[in-house]
Write a structure and sequence with these properties.
It is built from eleven helices and eight strands. It is an alpha/beta fold. The protein has a single domain, classed as TIM Barrel (Alpha-Beta Barrel), CATH 3.20.20. α4 (103-111) packs parallel to α5 (128-135). The chain binds ligand 8Y7.
Length: 277
């Protein structure tokens, strides 16, 4: 059975490269690409683009987690995500992760070939843990403060770094106790999920505290507002170079996986960095 940690180790030994997860949004209201990838032709083109860029994992999501995004019904999320995963799994030798917190979507995605559950709710939805345990897939546990609708209103922490660290370790322990193998767990600080700029900044500057934990760390900052804020732009698409820089820095600080929209740009930057370092 596929283990994400074994994959990461193998790739790192073979190529001295981190693992790159490419974002495939199948939402008409998605976070940062304005829903450019909703028609079948457009989805196909984007899959080919992510694969030729060098993505190891495709992260397929059907519900935007953007604050204020339209709620997607279970049946609509299933209709969006399942055919796309099935199509990719039949044609390409790539690891597929499903970006969902709904156990029904996890189950259906796994049935057609998904090997990782990427859950921004860290398997806290009723039934989600059971799906992970019974299917034996790998899981990405992400930190998020609050609920989607209001998480960015006025996030407050005592100590954001220890809060996030403790949450992630607690969720990982829960997973292991429930029966998820330790080598199938990835942790993620969840940049932008219930975090003001300064919270994201503290987490990123101190990323070594999280990469020192015994689980691989995934970092997703691609085209996020924290990058746009630093660059003083409101356009997410202008943040590509900034996003690439942050991805490279995250890897230098020990992150094993980066979740990105601009795969080729990121992979090229990482290849040069890892070769000349
Ligand atoms: C993340 C994520 C998003 C992230 C993980 C966006 C689904 C927002 N961000 N999953 N998903 N980590 N694991 O800008 O940071 O892509 S959605």
């Amino acid at each position: 059975m596929f283990s994400i940690q074994k994959f990461i180790e193998h790739k790192s030994q073979q190529d001295n490269m981190p693992t790159v997860m490419g974002v495939l949004n199948v939402t008409p209201d998605s976070f940062s690409d304005g829903g450019c990838f909703v028609t079948p032709d457009a989805i196909e083109a984007q899959v080919l683009n992510l694969l030729s860029g060098g993505a190891d994992i495709l992260d397929v999501g059907g519900e935007s987690t953007r604050p204020g995004a339209t709620i997607v019904s279970l049946s609509e999320e299933l209709e969006r995500v399942v055919p796309v995963i099935e199509w990719i799994a039949k044609r390409f030798d790539v690891i597929i992760s499903v970006d969902t917190y709904k156990p029904e979507v996890m189950q259906a995605a796994i049935a057609v070939g998904a090997k990782i559950i990427n859950d921004v709710n860290a398997l806290r939805e009723e039934g989600a843990m059971d799906v992970a345990v019974n299917s034996g897939v790998s899981v990405c546990l992400m930190h998020k403060q609050g609920v989607f609708e209001t998480m960015q209103d006025a996030p407050v922490y005592g100590d954001v770094l220890s809060d996030v660290r403790n949450f992630l370790l607690t969720r990982a322990r829960c997973c292991e106790q429930a029966g998820v193998a330790a080598d199938k767990i990835i942790l993620d600080p969840g940049f932008g999920f219930g975090k003001a700029f300064e919270h994201n900044e503290v987490l990123f500057r101190n990323l070594d505290v999280l990469t020192a934990l015994k689980y691989p760390l995934l970092v997703g900052v691609s085209r996020k507002r924290m990058i746009a804020d630093i660059l003083k732009t409101s356009s997410r698409l202008e943040g590509v170079s900034g996003s690439v820089s942050a991805a490279v820095l995250a890897v230098l600080k020990g992150a094993e996986i980066v979740r990105v929209h601009d795969v080729k740009e990121t992979v090229d930057a990482l290849k040069v960095t890892m070769r000349l370092m």
